[in-house]
Design a protein that fits this description.
There is one protein chain. The chain is of the alpha+beta class. The protein has one helix and four strands; from the N terminus they run E-E-E-E-H. The chain has a four-stranded antiparallel beta sheet, covered by helices on one side. Strand 1 and strand 2 form a beta hairpin. The radius of gyration is 12 Å and the shape is elongated.
Length: 56
């Protein structure tokens, strides 16, 4: 599911209805090139993401 996280559109990955990880793409200032790819799986960090995605 796509989700707005920290003001940016990211990919929230679910398993059996529960958030398991978030895939984040960092782009350059033009938004045309990817500078970094991050996969967040830390349960502590996912807590705040869960709160944001539940509002969707």
């Amino acid at each position: 599911m796509a989700a707005w996280i920290n003001g940016e559109l990211q990919l929230a990955l679910m398993k059996e209805g529960k958030l398991t990880e978030v895939l984040c793409l960092e782009t350059d200032s033009s938004g045309e090139r990817i500078k970094g790819i991050y996969l967040i799986v830390n349960p502590d960090k996912l807590l705040s993401v869960r709160a944001q995605t539940e509002k969707l």
